[in-house]
């Protein structure tokens, strides 16, 4: 097997999100966020987007898996010790906005929430692990949704600024790697998760969405400037959901369609946050769809000044597109799909597996932006079986990750500046899209099941020991 040479100091680790693993519902004066009102089950997102949904909890009707998650809130020391045993250099996590500002619009931060993350960061540093912190990861305070309309409201920019200043000042000596909004471009297809509102049938879908994006771009720029001022030696990046778009064939109409889809979904947010300006193709889109944004004096200058230091991105699959696709079978994916690619196999959940697509993605992003890249999500959601002797032999996960890490090695040889790699769901957690525990990504098995049963006991999978060797050899032993 070819040996790959990753840069010295490469940031190996794992990735999670507070709302999918933390638990501690209602503890420490935590407020209600969007994830807290998401029931378990494959229909959870459609329920959330139902017109008239009131963002209330109905425990008689639904089970809410995020309320307990995998109880990281109480078990973080045990979990961090396991991450350290694997040799993690970094641990990607998020701060729950509603632990710091329970309603989102308070004037003062919640000390109990701040103190919790102090303890987590201290425990990470005790084991020599640097935290990589996502500031907002699909967990907007419900109060900001109900009272202000989510990111459609300019007022939310002010609340976010208050939030980031609180955490930057509190953790300036503990966190050196930050990201602003998780998978920010996902708002184009699932605005409820990232933008804090649903598009109703009678509502114009274009202007509210892009107005909300504009507010997030302003907020991101504010966060970048504040981070650079308060923590001068820190790095702060954006985070996008990336899936390269292939044309179904060489028909120029399909090639152009694939290009337009790729620019619109993959590059719109990156162009604004990295280059600091709205790209020409989105300005044309605004003109053709009669979209007029409320852009205040100084906004565009602020966005230009507040560009990010690096790009963090998730990569799970590629996407194949055809302009007229009614005659083809659709594929599934991470909030987005396309048509089935005849050259690719798929996971248990129908997500097509394409390691070469990661190399393509890294080259595309680096060619376009020339800033450091960070693969902060990549992994295989699969059914895992606990054998009678307690072992979990997840060779399929090892195979998946090995091929994707090899693709990163090739991209580095291509000249890509790659900072690190954090495999998604390094410990089993709640699926964001379906609320399932059975969709497992981790190196560490958690005894928790879709019906809420389980002991929460942690078990090391076969992949645990494999990834430990990968890190110990800096990617040479795959």
UniProtKB/TrEMBL annotation:
This entry's Enzyme Commission designation comes to 3.2.1.86
In the UniProt entry, which residues are flagged as the active site? 377
Name the InterPro entries on file. GH, GH_1_N_CS, Glyco_hydro_1, Glyco_hydro_1_AS
What would be an example GO MF term here? 6-phospho-beta-glucosidase activity
Instruction: Tell me what this protein is called.
Output: 6-phospho-beta-glucosidase
| Organism per entry | Metabacillus niabensis
Q: Which UniProt keywords apply?
A: Glycosidase, Hydrolase
Question: Which Pfam family would be a valid example here?
Answer: Glyco_hydro_1
Q: Does the keyword Hydrolase apply?
A: yes
Q: Does the keyword Hydrolase apply?
A: yes
Q: Cite the NCBIfam families for this sequence.
A: PRK09589.1, PRK09593.1, PRK09852.1
- Family according to the record: Belongs to the glycosyl hydrolase 1 family.
Recorded superkingdom = Bacteria
């Amino acid at each position: 097997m070819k040996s790959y040479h990753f840069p010295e100091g490469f940031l190996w680790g794992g990735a999670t999100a507070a709302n999918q693993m933390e638990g501690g519902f209602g503890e420490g004066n935590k407020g209600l966020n969007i994830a807290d009102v998401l029931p378990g089950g494959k229909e959870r997102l459609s329920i959330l987007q139902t017109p008239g949904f009131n963002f209330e909890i109905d425990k008689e009707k639904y089970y809410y898996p995020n309320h307990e998650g995998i109880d990281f809130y109480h078990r973080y020391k045990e979990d961090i010790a396991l991450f350290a045993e694997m040799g993690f250099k970094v641990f990607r996590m998020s701060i729950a906005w509603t632990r710091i500002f329970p309603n989102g619009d308070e004037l003062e931060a919640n000390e109990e929430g701040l103190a919790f993350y102090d303890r987590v960061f201290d425990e990470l540093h005790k084991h020599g692990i640097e935290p990589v912190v996502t500031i907002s990861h699909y967990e907007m305070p419900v109060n900001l949704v109900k009272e202000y309309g989510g990111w459609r409201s300019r007022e939310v920019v002010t609340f976010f600024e208050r939030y980031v200043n609180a955490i930057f000042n509190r953790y300036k000596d503990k966190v050196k790697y930050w990201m602003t909004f998780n998978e920010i471009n996902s708002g184009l297809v699932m605005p409820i998760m990232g933008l804090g509102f649903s598009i109703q049938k009678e509502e114009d879908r274009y202007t509210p969405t892009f107005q909300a994006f504009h507010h997030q771009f302003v907020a991101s720029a504010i966060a970048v400037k504040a981070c650079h001022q308060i923590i001068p030696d820190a790095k702060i990046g954006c985070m996008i959901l990336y899936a390269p778009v292939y044309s179904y064939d060489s028909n120029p109409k399909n090639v152009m369609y694939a290009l337009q889809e790729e620019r619109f979904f993959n590059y719109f947010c990156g162009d604004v946050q990295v280059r600091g300006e709205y790209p020409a193709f989105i300005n044309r889109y605004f003109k053709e769809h009669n979209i007029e944004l409320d852009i205040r004096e100084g906004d565009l200058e602020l966005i230009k000044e507040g560009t990010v230091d690096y790009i963090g991105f998730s990569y799970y699959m590629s996407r194949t597109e055809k302009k007229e696709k009614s005659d083809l079978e659709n594929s599934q994916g991470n909030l987005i799909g396309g048509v089935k690619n005849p050259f690719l196999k798929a996971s248990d959940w129908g997500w097509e597996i394409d390691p070469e697509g990661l190399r393509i993605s890294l080259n595309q992003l680096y060619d376009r932006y020339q800033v450091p890249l960070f693969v902060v999500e990549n992994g295989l959601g699969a059914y895992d079986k606990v054998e009678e002797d307690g072992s979990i032999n997840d060779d399929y996960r090892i195979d998946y990750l090995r091929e994707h890490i090899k693709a990163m090695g090739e991209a580095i040889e291509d000249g890509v500046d790659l900072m690190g790699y954090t495999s998604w769901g390094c410990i089993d957690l709640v699926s964001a899209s379906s609320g399932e525990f059975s969709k497992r990504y981790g190196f560490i098995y958690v005894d928790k099941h879709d019906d809420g049963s389980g002991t929460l006991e942690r078990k090391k999978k076969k992949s645990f020991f494999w990834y430990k060797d990968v890190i110990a050899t800096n990617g040479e032993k795959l």
